[in-house]
Amino acid sequence: MKAVRKAVLPVAGLGTRFLPATKCMPKEMLPIVDKPLIQYAIEEAQAAGIASIMLITGRGKNLMEDHFDHAFELERTLELRGRLKELEIVRQFPEPSTIKYTRQQQALGLGHAIWCARDFVNDDPFAVILPDDMVLAERGCLSQMMDAYNDVGGNIVAVTEVPREHTNRYGILDVESDDGRLAKARGLVEKPDPADAPSTLSIIGRYILQPGVFAHLDKKQAGAGGEIQLTDAIAETLDSTPFHGLRYEGRRFDCGSKSGFIAANVAYALEREDMASDVRLALSEIMD
What are phi and psi of 86, to 5 degrees? Predict the structure, then answer.
């Protein structure tokens, strides 16, 4: 079984739910406390042993490339002023060979975005991280998934229970067996009507996949919402590839929504020793 050393991060979306903030700035550059979403995702990937990352970008996303590059004027200014702590922070970015970029030129769905990375992935297993989904945990969500992958192989997704009335928002597993940690699936359905949903076990934005999904993504068949769905490609491999959902440890924040984004900022701030007491005081004053 090959080790997972590559990750794909689809970041081509327009971020319309955060307008006007995202008119000129990619939503993946929105900060959680003092780091952008995209940096958290890349740090999670590297902590899980990922050596090579591809960002699937679109027009207007160059700011992310700039973020992971040297800012010579800023670094020189910080150095001259003796701001060595800040200088170390702005120099904490991956080696140049770590991150690669390609563009999704048509907004045809998540499956199409992943298809754009087919030459990068080649014949290797790979991870997918959606930066909008953040998981606050002692060990990163992808690291937990790597443990499960080493146990069972195949395709693995991170999953969580959702209210039945919300199943039409997510990909839902059709569960064959479940030990409380890993659920073996015989199928999955993208955004099913609550009355038809085979379970309430929902996929979040973390995947470990075998390259066989590209044989089905190559067909570019539209699914739910008229888009090319990654879950449809996974479903097509079920006869040949084991498929499991992992109940990860940690708290998930949907930073694609404004309320989830605000909640993540509060939760991550409360984890910081340098901020927690001030934030708690501010929250108590707000709630009075």
Answer: -65, -35
Tell me: pLDDT of 180 over 90.
Answer: no
Ramachandran region, residue 172 (left: φ > 0; alpha: ψ -120 to 50; beta: rest): beta
Rg (CA), the chain: 20
- Cα distances (angstroms) measured from residue 168 to each of 34, 155, 201, 204, 227: 33, 23, 12, 14, 15
Q: Return the pLDDT at 116.
A: 94
d(CA 19, CA 25): 10
Closest by CA position to 228, among listed 113, 103, 139, 124 = 113
Bridge partner residues of 159 (DSSP): 203, 247
Domain 6-283 class, CATH top level:
alpha beta
Those residues whose C-beta lies under 8 Å from the C-beta of residue 2, and which sit 6 or more positions away, are 124, 125
Please state, in angstroms and rounded to a whole number, the distance separating the CA atoms of residues 123 and 222: 24
Structure tokens at 12: 């081509």
pTM of the model: 0.92
Q: What is the DSSP string of 40-65?
A: HHHHHHHHTT--EEEEEE-TT-HHHH
Helix runs in 137-208, H state only: 141-152
Residue corresponding to tokens 């934030």: 279
Q: Find the mean pLDDT for residues 155-179.
A: 91
pLDDT at 10: 95
User: Which residues, other chains included, contact 13 with Cβ-Cβ below 8 Å and sequence gap of 6+?
Assistant: 27, 58, 107
Q: Find out whether 58 and 12 touch, Cβ atoms under 8 Å.
A: yes
Q: What is the structure's pLDDT at 26?
A: 92
Q: State yes or no: pLDDT of 244 exceeds 90.
A: yes
Reply yes or no on whether the pLDDT at 187 is more than 80.
Answer: yes
Which of 88-102, 186-200, 251-265, 273-287 has the lowest average pLDDT? 88-102
| SS3 of residue 88 by DSSP | helix
Q: Taking the domains of the chain in order of start, what are their residue ranges?
A: 6-283
